[in-house]
Amino acid sequence: MGDKKMLIVPVELVRKIDENRGDMTQAEFIEFLIDSQIEEKIKERQFVTKEELRVFEQDIKSLLKSFLDFFVGYGLELGKKSPKTEFEELSSKLHELENELGPTSKKGEAKIKWK
Predict the structure, then answer these.
(1) pLDDT digits (tens, 9 = 90+) for 50-108
(2) Its pTM surpasses 0.85
(3) Do 112 and 93 touch, CB atoms closer than 8 A?
C-alpha cells in the first residue's frame, strides 16, 4: 500500500469513522470494516458435504430406476410384443441396477447400455 489516493466522503461519514475507530487510523478502520464484510460473505456461502452428495446420487439412481421400471411396464401394457430374451435382458439389467443401488454399493455409479 505504498500508493495513496484521496477518497472524498461526506462529513457525517468521517464523523462516524472517528467516533468508532478507537486507536486505529481512519485508513486502518476502513480496511478493517471492508475485511470484516468480505469474511462475513465467505462464511455465508453454503457447501455440500460428501454425505449429502452421496445421498443425492443415490436418489437420482433410484429415480432413474423408477423411470426404467415405468417405461418397461408401459411398453408391456401397450402390447408391444418383445421377444422373451429381450425382456429377460432388460429385467436382468434392472436387477443389476437395483443391486448397485443397495447400501453395500461400492461402485458409486450405475451404467446402462442401450441398444
Answers:
(1) 998 999 999 999 898 888 888 777 776 666 555 667 767 777 887 787 777 765 444 55
(2) no
(3) yes
Cβ distance 87 to 102 under 8 Å?
A: no
Q: Is 91 helix (H, G, I), strand (E, B) or coil?
A: helix
d(CA 66, CA 45): 34
The amino acid occupying position 50 is K
Cell of 83: 421377444
Count of C-beta atoms within a 10 Å radius of residue 110: 20
Every domain of the chain and the residues it spans = 50-101
How big, in percent rounded to 5, are the helix, strand and coil portions of the chain?
Answer: 65, 0, 35
HEC profile for the chain? Answer: CCCCCCCCCCHHHHHHHHHHCCCCCHHHHHHHHHHHHHHHHHHHCCCCCHHHHHHHHHHHHHHHHHHHHHHHHHHHHCCCCCCHHHHHHHHHHHHHHHHHHCCCCCCCCCCCCCC
